Amino acid sequence: MPPQQDATPRSPLAGCLILVLALLMLVGLIGFTAWMPFRQAEEIEKFTKSAPAPVEVDVIEGNEAKVSALVERLEAFRSDLNDESGSARIELTAEDLNLAIAAFPQVEQLRKSFRVREITGEHLIIDICYQLNGRPRLAKDGEEGFMAADPFYLIGTIKGRPELARRELALRVDSLDVPGSTVPQGFLDHFSTLRLFEMYLKDPILGPAMAKMTRAEIQDGKMILARVPGENPPEVVTDANFKQGSQRFFMYLGIAACLFLAFAATMIYQSIKRQKRLEREGGSPGEGR
Q1: Domain with 225 in it
Q2: pTM metric for this prediction
Q3: Does 233 reside within a domain?
Q4: What are the DSSP calls for the chain, one per residue?
Q5: Tell me: the pLDDT tens digits for 63-104?
Q6: Domain presence at residue 16
Q7: Among residues 10, 26, 48, 184, which is most buried (max CB within 10 A)?
Q8: Is residue 71 a part of any domain in this protein?
Q9: Does a structural domain hold residue 277?
Q10: Residue whose C-alpha is closest to residue 173's, from 200, 196, 201
């Protein structure tokens, strides 16, 4: 019997290289993910303020009759929406919208943040003091969670249009004017759709009402909400609109992960191929007899 040949030595270089590259890639992805919020906060600081400048809120005292009339009109509109066979329509002026913000708890989050200055032929002109998340930091005593952020305030004027789709009323932002600052296009893309009523999709009153509307538009200086029998709401508001800015980040992250996986797979394939070649070249002379 011929002496048994020693096993072919296998170089650990390929495996170690893959491990090192995998660790470097992982550290890079983690670092990039951690760096992005700080980078975004740095850019946002250039056109925001650290202190709020609350917009005016209409006074309810002395306007009770107007508020009551608005409530009656809205209730009549909701009643018409419940009649599946008929049409429904309500016209809201800038004064109506500002009274609603001041009086109704459903839009309480807009108080001191949104005020409709006027309604033109195509747009709602809205003064805003919109709160944004600031630079991440460690949470202080009394704050929830491990991380927190001091708020920034976006103070300016937007031109927007109501949009209705996917059972939700939203605001499409066509332009944003911040005095003394230029807003980057990337932020405008992310800010292009404001889901002001997203939290009310499951509300027992507002949710069904939004689901039954088929039209939201501006006509003759008024915002029109309507249900036209046989008409379906246009699918103009999509998740892509709402998440356009963040999706770009995850797209880059996904591309980097795919490149890493492709590289790792290539290295593993080459390592296995080289190892098999070494085993064939180092086979015993009597092998295969």
Answers
A1: 48-242
A2: 0.69
A3: yes
A4: -PPPPPPPP--SHHHHHHHHHHHHHHHHHHHHHHHHHHHHHHHHTTT-BSS--PPP----TT-HHHHHHHHHHHHHHHHHHH-TTS-EEEEE-HHHHHHHHHH-GGGGGGTTTEEEEEE-SS-EEEEEEEEE--SEEEPPTT-SSSEEE--EEEEEEEEEEEEEETTEEEEEEEEEE-TT----HHHHHHTSEE-TTGGGTT-TTHHHHHHH--EEEEETTEEEEEE-TTPPPP----HHHHTHHHHHHHHHHHHHHHHHHHHHHHHHHHHHHHHHHHHHHT--TTTT-
A5: 999 999 999 999 999 999 998 888 999 999 999 999 999 999
A6: no
A7: 48
A8: yes
A9: no
A10: 196
Q: How many domains would you assign to the chain?
A: 1
pLDDT per position as a tens digit, 11-33: 555 556 666 766 777 777 676 66
Residue 173: what residue type? Answer: V
In single-letter form, the type of residue at position 17 comes to L
